[in-house]
Write a structure and sequence with these properties.
Helix content is 35%, strand content 13%. With 269 residues, it is of the alpha/beta class. It has a 5-stranded mixed β-sheet.
Length: 269
C-alpha cells in the first residue's frame, strides 16, 4: 500500500495536465480562464478507426512482448478505481502505467451502486487494498441531475435517479457554478459512504482504504488545473484529519496539503 500511495496518489497531482488525443473532442464551453481550448475536429468513423489502428501499432512498438509477461495469465492490480465515463477523465492522471495496476470501473457520475458487482469483484476477488472514488470538474451527470431530465431516455433517467440523495443536500445558495462544484464533491462523499456500508469490515480491519477525490481540471480548488484533490478518506472529510491520516505518512506534509481540499459543507449521510 505504501508503494501505491506514494506512486499512485501523491504523484498524480504533480504537473499533471489533461492530455488531448486525436480521437478526443472537447467543447470550448468547458474551458476556463485565459485561452480556453478550441473545439477539436470531430473525426469520421473511418478516421477514428485509422487513428485507433495506428495508435495500437505505436503502443506495440513501445511495449515489447516481455511487457505482458507478468500479467498475461492473471491480474494483480493495486487499486480499484471507479470514476465517471466522461472522456476528459482517464487513468493517465495517476502518472503510472495502468496495465495490471488499475482495475477501472466507469459509469456516469462515478456511482458505486450502478456498478456494484464490478466493485465487489475488485474488493473481494482481486483483491485490491485501495478503492478510489473519483469525481471530476464539470461533471455532466451532476449537472443533468440538478436540472430537469424528465425527457431523457429511460436508460439515462435510470442512471441519474440514484443521485437524488446527493442533491437533496443542495440548499440552492450561491451561483450555479459553485453549487455544481459542491455537488460533485457531495457525490464523492455519498459514494464513499455507500462503499463503507458494503466494505466497512475490510476498512476496520485495515485491509482496505477508501479514498474519495475530485479530478479538478477547472481549478475550482485553487490548487492548479489537473490536480487530484482528496476530499474523503474512509468517511472522514475534515481536512486536517485527512492530512494527518496514516495513509499519507510516507508523503511530505506539504505535498499532502497540496492534494487535500473541500468545497462542500460536511453532510451526515
Amino acid at each position: 500500500m505504501k508503494k501505491l500511495i506514494k506512486n499512485g496518489i501523491c504523484a498524480l497531482g504533480f504537473s499533471v495536465f489533461l492530455a488531448m488525443t486525436p480521437i478526443t473532442s472537447q467543447a470550448s464551453g468547458h474551458g476556463h480562464g485565459h485561452g480556453a481550448a478550441e473545439a477539436v475536429k470531430s473525426l469520421t468513423p473511418a478516421e477514428t478507426m485509422k487513428t485507433i489502428i495506428e495508435g495500437n501499432d505505436k503502443f506495440k512498438a513501445e511495449h515489447d512482448s516481455h511487457h505482458f509477461d507478468s500479467f498475461q495469465n492473471g491480474q494483480t492490480p493495486n487499486i480499484t478505481f471507479i470514476t465517471c465515463s466522461d472522456s476528459r477523465v482517464h487513468t493517465h492522471l495517476f502518472g503510472m502505467e495502468p496495465d495490471n495496476h488499475e482495475f477501472v470501473i466507469r459509469n456516469v457520475g462515478n456511482q458505486i451502486g450502478n456498478s456494484e458487482g464490478s466493485v465487489d469483484y475488485g474488493i473481494h476477488h482481486l483483491p485490491t487494498k485501495v478503492l478510489v472514488v473519483l469525481g471530476h470538474s464539470s461533471c455532466g451527470a451532476i449537472k443533468a441531475a440538478m436540472g430537469d431530465y424528465s425527457k431523457e431516455t429511460p436508460g439515462i433517467k435510470k442512471e441519474l435517479e440514484p443521485l437524488k440523495p446527493v442533491l437533496a443536500h443542495d440548499d440552492g445558495q450561491g451561483s450555479f457554478k459553485e453549487r455544481w462544484a459542491e455537488n460533485v464533491e457531495r457525490n464523492v462523499d455519498y459514494q464513499v459512504n455507500y462503499s463503507l456500508k458494503l466494505y466497512g469490515d475490510q476498512v476496520k480491519s485495515g485491509d482496505l482504504a477508501i479514498v474519495g477525490a475530485v479530478y479538478d481540471f477547472n481549478n475550482n480548488y485553487g490548487k492548479g488545473r489537473g490536480t487530484l484533490v482528496v476530499t474523503n478518506v474512509n468517511g472522514e472529510t475534515d481536512i486536517e484529519k485527512i492530512i494527518d491520516d496514516p495513509l499519507f505518512k510516507d508523503i511530505p506534509t506539504g505535498d499532502v496539503v497540496n492534494h487535500v481540499g473541500s468545497l462542500a459543507p460536511a453532510v451526515n449521510w
